[in-house]
Specification:
This protein is α/β, with parallel strands linked by helices and 197 residues long. It is built from 5 helices and 6 strands, in the order βαβαβαβαββα. The chain has a single domain, classed as Flavodoxin domain (Rossmann fold, 3-Layer(aba) Sandwich). The longest helix has 35 residues. The radius of gyration is 17 Å and the shape is globular. Bound molecules: flavin mononucleotide.
Length: 197
């Protein structure tokens, strides 16, 4: 099976981000046929329509990374029952101009973690709503993690609890298969287009 690429977006800029730990764990659990590209989202200015036509390099690097990826994995913290501003800003840049929306038809997996009992469930609901409007194909199901105790995932991405390992393994495999199926579908469409041309 050929290799697919997933762009990894972590919605926290913190050095010891719990969501970055979760993202590393997902990368480790994913099959070898999936390669991850960690994409920087913290170096873009706030979206400003006046910058259209002369987009900052950080923005064009970001949108190019999303375009070339077969799929996206968004690992979101929960900030005041929504997603972080830095993640929303990245989504906004990617959505404009409308004819170049990088999210359209992109397979996207959503997960996240917080120390609270709801473990980002509400932020994920909001993110799902935002990505649906973009025309992304969001992996069905909800995978959130209440990050307790603080050793649940080590900084290197090792999961120390079997139950968490089980459902995160399931998420990683489902996302990989979802992205692979989508890439295969796109390849077959290109083939059938060239046959009928
Ligand atoms: C501005 C702000 C708002 C927050 N709001 C929530 C919230 O609504 N729900 C929640 O579970 N945790 C909330 N938290 C706590 C975060 O879940 C916690 O700081 C978490 O570690 C952030 O993710 P990170 O470790 O990846 O940076 C909030 C934290 C910040 C800084």
């Amino acid at each position: 099976m050929s290799q697919t690429t997933i762009a990894m977006l972590v919605g926290s800029l913190r050095e010891d981000s719990l969501n970055a730990r979760l993202a590393r764990a997902i990368e480790k659990l994913s099959p070898e046929t999936t390669a991850f590209e960690w994409v920087e989202i913290g170096d873009m200015p706030f979206y400003n329509g006046d910058l259209e036509g002369q987009r900052p390099e950080s923005v064009t690097a970001f949108t190019a990374a999303i375009k070339r990826a077969d799929g996206v994995c968004m690992v979101t913290p929960e900030y005041n029952r929504s997603i972080s501003a830095v993640l929303k800003n990245a989504i906004d840049w990617g959505s404009k101009p409308m004819e170049n929306n990088v999210w359209r038809d992109k397979p996207v997996g959503i997960t996240g973690t917080s120390p609270g009992a709801l473990g980002t469930a509400l932020a994920q609901q909001h993110l799902r709503q935002i990505m649906a409007i973009q025309g992304a194909h969001v992996l069905p199901g909800e995978v959130y993690l209440s990050f307790q105790p603080d050793t649940l995932i080590t900084p290197a991405g090792e999961i120390t609890q079997d139950s968490a390992k089980g459902f995160l393994d399931d998420f990683a495999r489902r996302l990989a298969a979802y992205v692979e199926n989508h890439a295969a579908f796109l390849a077959s469409r290109v083939e059938s287009d060239s046959v009928s041309a």
